[in-house]
Amino acid sequence: MHYTTSGVNIRLLPSYKCSFEDPVHITVSGLNAQQRVNLRSKLTDDTGRVFQASATYQADDSGQVDLNRDPSLGGSFTGVEPMGLFWALKSDTVACRFTLTDVTRPALFDIEAVSNDKVIAKVTNERHCLTDGVRRIPVTEGRIRGTLFMPP
């Protein structure tokens, strides 16, 4: 899903879909020169718990923010942290861990650009646990229960 207003665009490189462990290069374009923008990430796990992170950035003279280059000025983390919107995700629940019970479905990370309390762009990053062609084989032998994942 991709949503934008007034020409602001969030890009995820190399793609909006990727493997769970792949790095994602996030850029925002179409901002005003030196405009401050808050980027927010949100993930809901399989139990319904919500995890969120945010960071404030300042666009360069061409109206762009590049998380590989530009430092977060505040929020869940500070400094240049290209994957900060992912690793800094936290739940409001104390000592809560992310739960993904069905690894055949992607985890959906929503990333929003917010200015003056309005969402000006939004994109969803699909992060997959299994690559194409991986076979999932249930194992039930005696008291043993599990799943065997076989590479393509």
Task: Label this structure with key terms.
single chain; 152 residues; mainly beta; Immunoglobulin-like; eight-stranded mixed sheet; three-stranded antiparallel sheet; 3% helix; Thio_Ohase/BAAT_N; Thio_Ohase/aa_AcTrfase
Number of domains: 1
Instruction: Predict the CATH topology.
Output: Immunoglobulin-like
- Largest sheet properties: 8 strands, mixed
* SSE order, one letter for each helix or strand: EEEEEEEEHEEEEE
Tell me the Rg in angstroms: 18 Å
Total count of helical runs of at least 4 residues = 1
Distance between the termini: 29 Å
Could you give the count of β-strands? 13
Find the structural class using helix and strand composition.
mainly beta
The appropriate CATH architecture is: Sandwich
Low-confidence stretches: none
Q: Helical proportion? A: under 10%
Instruction: Tell me, briefly, the overall form.
Output: elongated
The CATH class:
Mainly Beta
Strand content: over 45%
Give the mean pLDDT: 92
CATH superfamily: Acyl-CoA thioester hydrolase/BAAT N-terminal domain
InterPro entries: Thio_Ohase/aa_AcTrfase, Thio_Ohase/BAAT_N
Pfam families: Bile_Hydr_Trans
Domain Acyl-CoA thioester hydrolase/bile acid-CoA amino acid N-acetyltransferase: 22-141
Protein name: Acyl-CoA thioester hydrolase/bile acid-CoA amino acid N-acetyltransferase domain-containing protein
